[in-house]
Design brief:
Oligomer: single chain
Number of helices: 5
Shape: elongated
Order of helices and strands: HHHHH
Radius of gyration: 38 Å
Distance between the termini: 115 Å
Number of strands: 0
Structural class: mainly alpha
Largest sheet: none
Number of domains: 2
Strand content: under 5%
Length: about 160
């Protein structure tokens, strides 16, 4: 009984597979044009899956193009290259908008951190720096004063 069911399944699958129309040059060109139109229309959809479309694009722009290249006229080849360029431009626009979003997010974070620093720590850090500068200035002044006293008393520039 299982063998009969399995045989039926295999026969049914073969019948379905044989019903699929053969891909022709014209159907390839139509598919490619429809693909580009679909990508252009759906690219702003939040559920848009670039991975799925990248796979289809690779199939259309490379595998199937190679298959039909010898049958294509010059203008059909130009159309295929135009479609390829269109897809790559759409794809790069998406990547740029993603990068732009990341850049703006990072810029906002940096701005918030700077504002937080200005409000909370900057004055303490500036006071600390001013105090250190004053300490260095005082130590330098004392050291110069000591050297000048030594020079004034014995005429030498070395300390005893």
């Amino acid at each position: 009984m299982k063998l009969i069911k399995f045989s039926f399944f295999i026969i049914f699958t073969l019948v379905l597979a044989s019903c699929k129309p053969e891909l022709t040059k014209q159907s390839y060109l139509n598919q490619y044009n429809q693909f580009i139109t679909e990508v252009n229309e759906k690219r702003n959809n939040p559920n848009f899956n670039w991975g799925k479309y990248d796979t289809q694009f690779e199939r259309l722009s490379q595998t199937l193009y190679d298959r039909f290249e010898n049958e294509l006229t010059f203008s059909e080849k130009v159309t295929c290259r135009r479609n390829e360029l269109t897809y790559l431009l759409i794809r790069s626009q998406n990547e740029m908008s993603v990068l732009k979003g990341v850049f703006i997010d990072e810029l906002k974070k940096a701005h918030e951190q700077l504002e937080n620093y200005i409000e909370n720590n900057m004055y303490d850090d500036l006071n600390f720096l001013l105090q250190e500068v004053n300490n260095i200035k005082t130590l330098t002044f004392r050291a110069l004063n000591q050297v000048l006293k030594t020079v004034d008393t014995d005429g030498s520039s070395t300390s005893p």
